[in-house]
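We emphasize that the prediction below concerns an isolated chain of 222 residues; any contacts that depend on oligomerization or on bound cofactors are therefore not represented. The input was used exactly as deposited, without trimming of termini.
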Amino acid sequence: MAHKVHPKSFRIKGTEDWNIRGFYGRKMPQFLEEDFLVKDFLRKKFVEASVANIQIEHSANKFNIIIETARPGLIIGRGGGGIDTLKKEIEDKIRRKIKNRPVVKGSPREIKIEIREVKNPWISAALVAQMAAQQIEKRMPFRQVLKKTIERVMTNREAKGIRMEVAGRLNGIEIARREWLGQGRLPRNTIRADIDYAQDEAQCTYGKIGIKVWIYKGDKFE
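Result of the prediction step, given as a token string:
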């Protein structure tokens, strides 16, 4: 029986790094809980902002949040007012969460938000999965979605190969099944292979459809 491993965790400290990193010290339980709280809040708030990834960095009295998105204007807002509003909302979320438990003493941390633009969303596995989920939710045939998405991704020079997989009650049938399509190379057992992986869900009237995307961008020799 095959042992399935997340493509990113398989390459940690080789060609990939952790999304949450930094020094926690004795405050690890509190800070780790806050990290997951903030990531869940941001993903729900910016569903339509095409967020590809959220990274969190901890340093001395600083809490740095890096948001990678294809539509930075929706987050930044006019004159950068959206960033200030977002900081206040995150501070309120954290303050409410720690209300019913002892607060770890220490100087207050400065929250910093950094927005990075994803220039080409078609080579980001997370954004490709989101776009495929939106089309399936609009009742488009899943095979048509897979074929058109794969063709569009493979028109980019950076993409050397792609695999897309869908699972669930495809097209609303009673029995759930799993189907996939691929094109190009995808060496998933090679650690130096730069493979961008993501998964998403399409919320349909007949149930959830799971979507997985692997995009191979060549090898990294570092």
